[in-house]
Write the structure tokens for this entry.
Amino acid sequence: MSMTEKDFLTIKHQVSKIIDRLIIDEKPYLQNHNFSQTIDFLEQYRREVKSAGLYTPQISKENGGLGLNLFQLGQLYEIFGQAFYGLYIFNCQAPDAGNMEILLEHGTSDQVEQFLNPLLEGKIRSCFSMTEPDNPGSNPTLMNTTAIKDGNDYIINGHKWFTSSADGASFAIVMAITDPNNSNPYLQASQFIVPTNTPGFQIVRNISVMGDEGDGWMSHAEVKYTNCRVPSSFLLGKEGQGFSIAQERLGPGRIHHCMRWIGISERAFHLMCQYATSRKINANQTLADQQLVQSWISDSKVEINAARLLVLDAAKKIDNQGAKEAKIEISMIKFFVANVLQKVLDRAIQLHGALGMTDDTPLALWYRHERAARIYDGPDEVHKLRVAREILKQYS
Ligand SMILES: Cc1cc2nc3c(=O)[nH]c(=O)nc-3n(C[C@H](O)[C@H](O)[C@H](O)COP(=O)(O)OP(=O)(O)OC[C@H]3O[C@@H](n4cnc5c(N)ncnc54)[C@H](O)[C@@H]3O)c2cc1C
């Protein structure tokens, strides 16, 4: 076994021990869930993770992370995913992790100092503002938000929604049209850093999602940008690079989500097996003795294992050949794993009966939050179309 593999196994072991404890400690915070009342508890865990040298593991060693490849990182995300706040305490939660990546890749030295460094340290949070209520997110070239050059500044106007975690964030990365007449729609937009204290930045509301407005990091905001003036030094990358930067952000981001979902599925599966073997349905039998339940157990196990292998295969391809070459694999896992997650959570809730509907287990909270897995970062249908189109190209 090479040193690297040995070191990685040590890291995995350390991470598992922290997550096992978090699963127990976070339980009371998941009932009547409220993010702002959870922050002090989470900060304690963050301090522990930092002093163990495991903070921001997705980042290169030079920038203070662990320098792992995606294949290794995926395995850690599965462990993080088993606790509701697993990713957060390691500072690799969406949307911050994606923003860190693009700032690392495209940020100027001033942007790094002002925005990236405090994000890496976990001192501030951020958000990503692309989707608009009046346009289809599945075709983001249709966008009304504009950024118009005015001297040394840009003036941004637009209406966004589902800007996750905007509540309490220090800055937003905003997609806006800068060159509406470009014949290539993919070159029309740019990305800007907009501090949330910029005059004209307004959170209209935290949108109620599945009965829950949430707060702080656990919320999705409707945001208006009204004559938001930012200096041109807040342009991220070059003008017209908005879509290519967004693509860079989404490729590895989808692997992170998928591995996290496998972690959730494994935890739901574990709860399902525990409950099946302990819930008596008559004097001599438990739920586990029922063939229908056994079928759920088998189906769930094989689906989770298949999902994991597909994700690790995609991660390996990205590591070896880059995200562009792995676009079919990335689209395949995005819809496949999101559906496995939904099926496993649904079976776990059904098996728990009324208990499954309560917040005494994390199943209902996950079920509410993760229904969106089949929609964000591209709905199922869009990814299915992409996979089929790429395959059929080889036949035409
Ligand atoms: C919980 C959550 C968090 C989010 N966080 C963020 C965020 O932080 N920042 C951000 O910018 N956005 C975010 N989004 C927005 C998300 O990216 C969009 O919802 C997504 O891209 C889909 O866009 P839409 O909702 O406008 O659906 P539409 O594009 O209007 O599509 C509606 C439905 O039509 C179907 N459909 C679409 N296109 C096709 C097609 N070609 N063929 C067949 N069927 C099709 C799909 O079933 C789709 O669900 C978030 C969304 C959710 C739910």
